[in-house]
């Protein structure tokens, strides 16, 4: 390799932090998070089988993708590690909704965030549109995991 080669690294100011962390399968509980088929999921059911003739107890996970709601399943030996996603929830104040379905949000430091689409969940979408049309101050909760973000909840903090 020569010094003339240029290397570019994509970062989101998280100091090289991983999108997931390892956790022993036997330690993952219901309502926790797990990565199944490279998707961040919330665990809705865990069952553990007894040790078989091949020596490992197995954990059977039933989980729901936190972004698209699809049900996924996985069976892992309880002594093995599973990936667990870093899931963050952040609240932003809604400033504007554009015609192409993107929202403009106010961050804590006073900047705007304009790269989020309106949610696909009909109930939340209706509440956001109605509240915005009525001129209410809405605070949207944005869930982020593994490089994806989605509006997952909202609350009304009163009229403007």
TrEMBL record:
| Positions with biased composition (Basic and acidic residues) | 1-13
- Does the record's keyword annotation contain Protein biosynthesis? yes
Q: How is it modified after translation?
A: eIF-5A seems to be the only eukaryotic protein to have a hypusine residue which is a post-translational modification of a lysine by the addition of a butylamino group.
Q: Residue limits of the Translation initiation factor 5A C-terminal domain?
A: 86-155
Q: Where is this region: Disordered?
A: 1-22
Q: Which InterPro entries match?
A: IF5A-like, IF5A-like_N, IF5A_C, NA-bd_OB-fold, Rib_uL2_dom2, Trans_elong_IF5A_hypusine_site, Translation_prot_SH3-like_sf
Q: Keyword annotations for this protein?
A: Hypusine, Initiation factor, Protein biosynthesis
What GO molecular-function term can you cite, just one?
Answer: RNA binding
Pfam families this protein is in? eIF-5a, IF5A-like_N
Record-linked SMART domains: eIF-5a (SM01376)
Q: Set out the biological process GO terms recorded for this chain's protein.
A: positive regulation of translational elongation; positive regulation of translational termination; translational elongation
To which protein family does this belong? Answer: Belongs to the eIF-5A family.
PANTHER family found in the cross-reference section = TRANSLATION INITIATION FACTOR 5A FAMILY MEMBER
Q: What does this protein do?
A: Translation factor that promotes translation elongation and termination, particularly upon ribosome stalling at specific amino acid sequence contexts. Binds between the exit (E) and peptidyl (P) site of the ribosome and promotes rescue of stalled ribosome: specifically required for efficient translation of polyproline-containing peptides as well as other motifs that stall the ribosome. Acts as ribosome quality control (RQC) cofactor by joining the RQC complex to facilitate peptidyl transfer during CAT tailing step.
What's this protein's name?
A: Eukaryotic translation initiation factor 5A
Q: Which organism is it from?
A: Brachypodium distachyon
Q: Which gene encodes it?
A: LOC100822202
């Amino acid at each position: 390799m020569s010094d003339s080669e240029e290397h570019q690294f994509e970062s989101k100011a998280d100091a090289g932090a991983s999108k997931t962390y390892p956790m022993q399968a036997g330690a993952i509980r219901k309502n926790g998070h797990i990565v199944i088929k490279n998707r961040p999921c919330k665990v809705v059911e865990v069952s553990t089988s007894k040790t078989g003739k091949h020596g490992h107890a197995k954990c059977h996970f039933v989980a729901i993708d936190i972004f698209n709601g699809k049900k996924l399943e996985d069976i892992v030996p309880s002594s093995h590690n599973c990936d667990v996603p870093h899931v963050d929830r952040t609240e932003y104040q809604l400033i504007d909704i554009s015609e192409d379905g993107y929202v403009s949000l106010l961050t804590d430091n006073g900047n705007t965030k304009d790269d989020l689409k309106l949610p696909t969940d009909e109930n939340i979408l209706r509440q956001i549109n109605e509240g915005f049309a009525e001129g209410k101050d809405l605070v949207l909760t944005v869930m982020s995991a593994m490089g994806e973000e989605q509006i997952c909840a909202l609350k009304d903090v009163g009229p403007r």
